[in-house]
């Protein structure tokens, strides 16, 4: 008698794939709520059958596929297109996440307006605001166009009906955590609901060829709210960053199936809308006609984008005998290390003084390429020697006092030359430099300080 295969039920977590014999509300392994689902498995010892299904379309050689079938369509916002790799791709799904109030809705409303100005239709679906509230913002920012359609909808099935009725080429969903569906369990914004809604919207984008822009919420830790699989389902993941105390906003690429994943776009958020900043270097420089002691300029790479940043240092006498360290925009541990290297390797007695370090314009210098600029700014403030405003410093400082080269040096120097800088202090080993940019190479921090004195004296003469 033939032995038949029986099935049994098992429960598996969709986040960590932990299996349990019975259903639980919270995964005992990763602790996530609402991710344990029932799966059917063949019983041990059963006979598994494998049945082939004829494909709807045959597999073809990769060289026979026309690369022009999937191309970018510009949105009209240069910095946004830069991060996307040239624009949005039909049928793609892009997730834009950011803190509350950072300007996500303002940016995407501007995207819809520019899209409509090019003769294309856009649909803005909002589960957070009414159509009147969106219209009020559109009037304030000048984003009123007849080809931009608005709908306040939180049900994903009804939202798909709006897409079929309007037939747009661009759809903005604000936000995916406020949408709900009756075809999945869980509360609105929960793991199960967010996964089901994202899957439905992704399938609609792939089948209709409509480009989708989804707004995502973030947790207090800055991570995207919802399941981790949310970032796997979409094609592009962008983070919208910005400080409430500053008008500067940055769109940072995290994942991009159609371009580079480390591009950065800069914007300025105003009351009347948002504008692109094609050259953000001027935001991080203190424009002054004469050099001032305690300042130094460097070139940092944010993703692939070179940016000019200024470091300012101030040396003071300790009030109570214990020196104070105050750092803003620079890693405090690296600042303390550079101070120790200056005192030990360069014989510069700065450790007994109060040291204040800051960047201009709220810029954050987190990579090691700004070490030399920090060191020269401290030395300039201590010796009262001003670096010329046309000089930059790029390099990493080691604990032995040696200077190390950093990645992307050619790109950094080219950006400095483009902005009019004429002198660069860099680690030894540089073989070429852009035209019009004179380089001073130093092996260690002591040599860099001698270069600082030489440049300052030449500028004074």
UniProtKB/TrEMBL annotation:
InterPro entries according to UniProt: AAA+_ATPase, DNA_repair_RadA, P-loop_NTPase, RecA_ATP-bd, Ribosomal_Su5_D2-typ_SF, Ribsml_uS5_D2-typ_fold_subgr, Rubredoxin_2
Protein's job: Plays a role in repairing double-strand DNA breaks, probably involving stabilizing or processing branched DNA or blocked replication forks. DNA-dependent ATPase involved in processing of recombination intermediates, plays a role in repairing DNA breaks. Stimulates the branch migration of RecA-mediated strand transfer reactions, allowing the 3' invading strand to extend heteroduplex DNA faster. Binds ssDNA in the presence of ADP but not other nucleotides, has ATPase activity that is stimulated by ssDNA and various branched DNA structures, but inhibited by SSB. Does not have RecA's homology-searching function.
Positions that bind ATP: 98-105
Recorded superkingdom: Bacteria
Location of the region described as Lon-protease-like in the Swiss-Prot/TrEMBL record: 354-461
Annotated protein name in UniProt: DNA repair protein RadA
Transmembrane residue ranges: none
Record key words, sorted: ATP-binding, DNA damage, DNA repair, DNA-binding, Hydrolase, Metal-binding, Nucleotide-binding, Stress response, Zinc, Zinc-finger
GO BP: recombinational repair
A GO MF term: ATP-dependent DNA damage sensor activity
Pfam families: AAA_25, ChlI, Zn_ribbon_LapB
